[in-house]
Amino acid sequence: MLRLRLRILRHSLAARPLAVLVAAALGLGVAALAFYGTLAFLRFLSAYPFAAGVVEVRSLEGLFLVLSAAVLLSALPGALAVLYDSRDLPLLLAWPLPAARVFTLKVVETYAVTALVPTLLTLPVLYALGVFHEAS
């Protein structure tokens, strides 16, 4: 089933290469903006050593709180739509596969739709934090 989903993804991406390039360019632009914006913010905070640590930690906590809320609020309707509005669910349940495997695939599909984008938006911020603190 996973191979089928990956094949569908590959064919849909190959059908619209210009849209894929535009989306990739926008994604890289947002990631670069998040990375360099975080570095600039941390450099600005380093000028105030008394409050820099507290503001840095609270800002990171706020980022995780907002992204967690965004994932939760987008995952609930997404999960309900994937499980109950899915047109392929009767076909998948008719296959000679255990029902647990079908629902595991649906959970992974829901995660890929809802939580992948906030996760990818968080990674440049965390990488910038590591670069600023010279983590190895």
From TrEMBL:
Keywords per UniProt: Membrane, Transmembrane, Transmembrane helix
A Pfam family found in this protein is ABC_tran_2
- Which residues span the membrane? 20-42, 62-84, 111-132
Keyword check for Iron-sulfur, yes or no. Answer: no
Keyword Heme (UniProt)? no
Query: Domain of life here?
Result: Bacteria
What protein am I looking at? Answer: ABC transporter permease
